[in-house]
Amino acid sequence: MLILVAAGLLLVVGVVAWEYWPVALRYRQSRSVEDGRADVAGYVSGHDSLSVAACQLASEIRRLNQLSFRLSSLEPVSHKRIYDEPRFVPSGEDPTNPRVEEVTLNAYRSTIPDWIPSQDRVSLRRWYDSTMHARGLRIVDCAANKRLKLPARVDCGMNHSSARRSLSAIR
Fold first, then answer.
1. In angstroms, rounded to a whole number, what is the distance separating the alpha carbons of residues 153 and 168?
2. Pair 24, 17: CB distance under 8 Å
3. Which of 46-55, 114-123, 152-161 has the lowest mean pLDDT?
4. Does 24 share its domain with 103?
């Protein structure tokens, strides 16, 4: 019984450390950046499509942002110089490579936070769209949550009752 309690306590301590210990958060940040670089490398090398790579990179960017917010709330403000460097460029790749720009801009376009006012989100999205259009890059959208696809399906010729049945089948 004592071993079970000790194991449970150790598990709880491990989970709390993984979620809130600054060393673990920095480790998870670096892993997220490496995973993002791998996503970009997969697209640049031709193994992944643009939509797959951009959506996977967007997921890593969201994860990195969450970890960064959590870490900034735990650590005191430090006065370090901020370097604006391309974070998700794989080693050996040129940051100005059009394929690198295409996948990273599409990913950042998909990660505009919901807490930004609606009109500002629209402006940011238009900025990304015009930048990619001016550079001759393709624009892709990440698939939304299946429950959020219902309005689009209704707009595409599906009536409300069949859309409702389709949504019930997904659940």
1. 14
2. yes
3. 152-161
4. yes
